[in-house]
Fold this protein.
Amino acid sequence: MTADTAGAAAGGDRGASGTEEAVRFHALLKAFEGAPAAIGGRGKDLVNEPMIRHWCEAMGDNNPSYSGPAAIAPPTMLQAWTMGGLSGHTDRASAHDDLFALLDGAGFTAVVATDSEQEYLRPLRPGDAVTFDAVIESVSPRKTTKLGTGHFVTTRMDVRADGALAGTHRFRILKYRPAAQQAQQAQPGSAARPAQSARPSAQAAARRPRPVVNRDNQGFWDGVRDHKLLIQRCTACRALRFPWLPGCNTCASPDWDTVEASGTGTVFSYVVMHHPPFPAFDPPYAVALVELAEGVRMVSNITGVPYDKVRIGLPVQLEFLRVDDGLELPVFRGSAG
Ligand code: ZN
């Protein structure tokens, strides 16, 4: 926590939840509890087999319950039937927007989805018409997390099929004041960095996003600092994995060590980003899924080759790109020609 956040305007504190201001602000937020976030929403499509099939293919779920004449929809699709798509729903209630405006106005401008819970009461079947209501269920007191200080907002959606409650979906987000300075302090050698202005300058706005470093991936970023690309290896079954995870997807063991990648690989797939524009990036540029010689794949940038010359199968070599004084990233240099 640095001086600028401590001195921020409405809602400002040093992360303690007990200050008078924080309590007063939480009371304003709590007034939204029970307010509707969506009333009488309607699924844009009836529950249908094509959407079920696409979902199962994307998830790699071959459960026979989801195909054939007596198919049901995978329970975890519950939210999919309520989604508004790019055009959205027209019946969105304003309480949600009002709550977010209040949080934004107090400096809690960043948002991250933290978790969701679902409860299934009856299966959804092709032909079911889905309706839903959503309510702002709770707004937490001020909490300080590694990302920053803010409030957790839980929204509960009741999903009905032909009028009968089929399931409940709770969705929790954290609206927070970004703790960019904390991330800086985590970078060795930058402890003396002066606190940034609370008002983002044009330069600050154009900085590349910082990685979220946590206990599950700290070792990876420690490796990057030492110019090593470290792959996790399960010590029980020897399976390699990337990105870093707390456990093994093959045998569920939580025990692991690391192997250092040789640094050679090939482009397994790629996209060229044209849109949307983002100030920290200069489109068009290629984002590649690189298959390392060790067999795992990682998403990264390709250097040394124009974006329109990146190809599947292109041989690449690891290098470390100093993006700015607080960020170094593993990237891959393509061999031109
Ligand atoms: Zn394993």
User: Anything to note?
Assistant: Residues 1-17, 181-204 have pLDDT under 50 and may be disordered. The pocket of zinc ion is lined by residues 234, 236-237, 239, 248, 250-251, 253 (CB under 6 Å). The first helix runs from residue 3 to 6. The longest strand covers residues 164-178.
